[in-house]
Amino acid sequence: MSQKNEILPLLLTVMVTSALLGGIAWWLLNKTFPNLNDRSNSSSSSNNQISETLGAVKNVPEGLFNYGGSTTWAPIRKEVDFIIQQVWPKFRLVYTDPTTGTPGTGSGIRMLIENQLAFSQASRSLKDEEIQRAQQRGLTLKEVPVAIDGIAIAVHPDLPVSGLTITQLKDIYTGKIRNWRQVGGPNLAIIPYSRRKEDGGTVEFFIDQVLEKADFGSNIKYVYSTTPALRKVSQNLGGIYYASAPEVVPQCGIKTLPLGKSENKLVAPYQEPSIPSSQCPQKRNQLNELAFQQAIRAQYLRHNCVRYFALI
C-alpha cells in the first residue's frame, strides 16, 4: 500500500472531528441540491474506520506529506494540524501553495492530479472534467465528505447597515445595486470584493447559488485570497466581501451581516449579541451554532460539504 493510501483513514478521522468548525450557511436559500455522495466513480467513506482518538489510529505512515487546496479549510488546519503533530510527530504535513495562480479548491485538485500533493482539501465536489483528467493519467480520485460549511458576509464595522436579503446581496454583486443608500445605508459607493471564479469552490458556489449563475458586475474588485480581502474591507467603509463563515466571523477588523430571504427574517452568522471590534481580540464573535444545527436538520446544506480528495 502506498503512503497516499495509508493516510486516508487518519485524515478522515481527524477531519470528521473538526466538523463543528463549520458555520452559518445558506439554509436561507430553501432550494433542492444534489446529493454529492451519488457518484459512481467515488468510493464511499463507509469503509473507513473512525477511531475514538487520534492515538487509537493504527498504521499511521511516517514521512513528509504535501497537501493543499481550499482556503475554506484554514480554520480547521489551524486547530487540527497542531494536534496531529503532537500525537504523530513523524507524520508531517506541509501546506503547499500552487507555484502559479492562487490557492483554492481548483488549484488543489489540479496539483493532486499532477502528483504534487498527497491529498487536497476542497469546498465543492469533483467536476466531471477533473475526474476525466485524473483517469487520463491512470489515476482514481477518492472523494470523502467530512463537514458542512457556509458563507458569511463581511463589511466595515462602522457601516450603518443592519443586514441584507439574498436578493440584495445578488444585486450588489451583479452590479444592480451600487450604493449603500439603496439598502438603507449611507450615500456611499459599494466596493464589492471577490476572488475570481477559477480560484475556489466558494466562489463557484456563490455564483451558482446566490447569483443564480449571473455574471459579476463590472465594479467587482478582485483579490488574491480572503486575508487581503478582509484587510481591504476593514480599510474601506464601502467594502463588502463573502467567504467561509469560520474564516470571517471571528475577525476583529470587520463585522458580519445578518442575512435572510426577507428583511424581517434576517439571521445572524454570529452568536448574539454581537461583540464590537473595540473588544476584539480579547473577545471574539462566535459562530451561530444553533442556526447551523437547524440548517443541518433542514437538509439545506448537503450541497456545500467541505471535503478532501486523495489518490487511491
UniProtKB/TrEMBL annotation:
Pfam (any one): PBP_like_2
Stored SUPFAM superfamilies: Periplasmic binding protein-like II
Keywords: Membrane, Signal, Transmembrane, Transmembrane helix
The keyword Repeat belongs to this UniProt entry's keyword annotation: no
Keyword Transmembrane attributed: yes
Residues spanning the membrane: 7-29
Protein name: Phosphate ABC-transporter periplasmic phosphate-binding protein
UniProt source species: Microcystis viridis NIES-102
